[in-house]
Amino acid sequence: MSYCTATYRIYDPKADFERKAQSIAIGMTVGTWTELPQIKQEEMRRHLGRVERIQVHEPETGSETERYADVSISYPDVNFTRDLPALLITVFGKISMDGKIKLLDLEFSDSFLSAFPGPKFGLDGVRDLLGVKGRPLLMSIFKSVVGYDLNGLKEQFLAQALGGVDLIKDDEILFENPLTPIDQRVRVCREAAEEAERVTGKKLLYATNLTGPTSKLKEQALRAIDAGASALLFSVLPYGFDVLHELSSDPDITVPIAAHPSLAGALYPSPHYGIAASLLLGKLMRIAGADLVLFPSPYGSVVMPREENLAIRRELTAEGLPQRASFPVPSAGIHPGLVPRILDDFGTDVVVNAGGGIHGHPGGASAGGRAFLQAIDAAMNGVSLEQASASLPELKAALDLWGGQR
Amino acid sequence: MSYCTATYRIYDPKADFERKAQSIAIGMTVGTWTELPQIKQEEMRRHLGRVERIQVHEPETGSETERYADVSISYPDVNFTRDLPALLITVFGKISMDGKIKLLDLEFSDSFLSAFPGPKFGLDGVRDLLGVKGRPLLMSIFKSVVGYDLNGLKEQFLAQALGGVDLIKDDEILFENPLTPIDQRVRVCREAAEEAERVTGKKLLYATNLTGPTSKLKEQALRAIDAGASALLFSVLPYGFDVLHELSSDPDITVPIAAHPSLAGALYPSPHYGIAASLLLGKLMRIAGADLVLFPSPYGSVVMPREENLAIRRELTAEGLPQRASFPVPSAGIHPGLVPRILDDFGTDVVVNAGGGIHGHPGGASAGGRAFLQAIDAAMNGVSLEQASASLPELKAALDLWGGQR
């Protein structure tokens, strides 16, 4: 018998959590139990959910904190098929609507996990493609290019590429449009990448945004790959984890997939409802096959608490899962002065991802990229940015504008 | 120029909401505005978002209510493709992660709406299939049938069908399994439906649960339809609205689709985050093509406030949209004594949907169905249930057990 286990945080001022847990374990599996005749119980036992742990947090008298319990329940694999919609429907479908309840974590059986090849490249594979080891990667984000034509797009791409960045990603709000359709967009950006490569001597991945009807996503991905796409950007949540899983496990999709957290804020930030960030943007993204995973950094204006960031990182990279590790990409509000702090928080296996911090550099986007690389180099060598910037005008300009660590 | 408009509730104790709204309207479209040269502004104006309305709710001094604003922003259709993922990514992708913000409503342009045929049958079409006008429909839900074989399933189906229900739906946690694979399940339930029809003289739709990998859903639906399925049950949210849209607009899918709200509780209940129930389970389900939409009733243990229920009903049935109306199916906690209240709240265009209220009837599931039909008949004729039950033993037994209106 193998089981997948879900852990919930359930808020209730008075509930008997033991009873509540039992009612979930029974209600979401065999429906009824004590009413069943003995012989039927024998038959149904292999389908019955099991309460694993209950940890009740009683608020101190007079305190304003709420009473809750963390409850873990195991669901027999035999009850559901080995796909993420079936698992999510089983463990959180109906009970997501049953009062204040948040899904904190899932532990999967080996049998369930065996259906998920996970990231095709993963953290190490992306490093191999770029030939970069031992330092954080640098990604830059297109500024809004809605309404741009191919020339405008190419120009912006080239400016970023010449700064020496490792990856460039589309804006996730750039959809198929007559000015920059995906195959032509990929073609001109590839040309620009090659042009830049001749100058910088560096390889570069361009994650082009995969959009449109669900049933056409594979076709569109193949069109992009045919045109020379070296990576894909995909907003997973509006389509569901299963679509990412199907794309990433498809042998014809031969490039890394970067998962965008679009819509995630509808699901993770409430303490009472939804799905914890570490599960939503960590473990589930990795199992579904994202090679890189973007999530809101704790540094910028779109903020996620630092401990949630670190929990996501842990889920994306921890050993213990058969799936390759995914590259963590904390995003938003990143400027060169933050690089030492990012290294402290994430270590070297992180993608430093910047938009405004590259485009807003007083010397332009290329200087912006160089300032980041200088910051990364200094931080990796234990040199303070202030000290390093004395001989590095791009880094100095960035620190002057945005300051050091905040 | 045509636009789709999103309305958000944004909580902030001090924000300048005018400025915040402008920053969303610009940030989620052209990226920057005031910095653009005049000539570039002319070029980009057609891509620029527009602040439509801002309604600030200032809490009274000393009150504990929070300060918030309802903000409406229009996004030019030219910026996104005519699919729901593109729209959701545009209006809520990134800003869902930007503090306390909830998406309350969307208004669509005629151009956007024209890409969505909506429900193939809708409320009237489902009535036509059943030949039932002018009264609420009655749906019964399989009790958990995880672990059942075909005989057990058929037996339970027949008991429900003989009670005269109009629709029977699978449990949403019944996935493909060796005991009751979809085509065989449909075949035996169809036989049972025909058997019951010979007794009751009534037609019956059976919504079989559509599950599994996204790319195989259509194939599985066709297998079910080939085997004689008369309707499909589909958990929309784990797969995304676009998958429902693609299934419902496919000419080969020739039966109604009932949308299950599985996972919806991760999205709608928080006041601060997520997507309002009326949009999530109302307007979006209708536009994406659900013929029937289940949602938690305000009557049972899985509770949604009555006003949210009525808002869902409004969105599913209101005139003003080109899409057919969807049948509202408030679910959970329904017993015959509640029928007059359901009629008061929803009118006759509602599906009375019961699980325990049918299976738990002292006379069994068939008697349970009859008790509901008796309650519907009495309520439609303005007769009190108490009075009607004097000559109707099934209704009387139900009222004795569960009481009248709560």
Primary descriptors:
2,3-diketo-5-methylthiopentyl-1-phosphate enolase activity (chains A, B); RuBisCO_lsu_C (chains A, B); homodimer; eight-stranded parallel beta sheet; 2 domains; alpha/beta; 406 residues; Alpha-Beta Plaits; TIM Barrel; five-stranded mixed beta sheet; Diketo-Methiopentyl-P_enolase (chains A, B); 16 helices
Structure description:
Two copies of one chain form a homodimer. Chain A has 406 residues and is an alpha/beta fold. Chain A has two domains: 3-113, Alpha-Beta Plaits, CATH 3.30.70; 122-402, Ribulose bisphosphate carboxylase, large subunit, C-terminal domain (TIM Barrel), CATH 3.20.20.110. Chain A contains 16 helices and 13 strands. In chain A, the strands form two sheets. In chain A, strands 12-11-9-8-7-6-5-13 form an eight-stranded parallel beta sheet, sandwiched between helices. The longest helix of chain A has 19 residues, at 182-200. Chain A starts with a strand and ends with a helix. In chain A, 56% of the residues are buried. The model of chain A has no long low-confidence stretch (mean pLDDT 95). Chains A and B meet through helix 3, helix 9 and strand 10 of A and helix 3, helix 9 and strand 10 of B. Chains A, B: Residues 125-292, 325-402 form the Ribulose bisphosphate carboxylase large subunit C-terminal domain. Chains A, B: Keywords: Amino-acid biosynthesis, Isomerase, Magnesium, Metal-binding, Methionine biosynthesis. Chains A, B: It comes from Paenibacillus faecis. Chains A, B: Pfam families: RuBisCO_large, RuBisCO_large_N. Chains A, B: This is 2,3-diketo-5-methylthiopentyl-1-phosphate enolase.
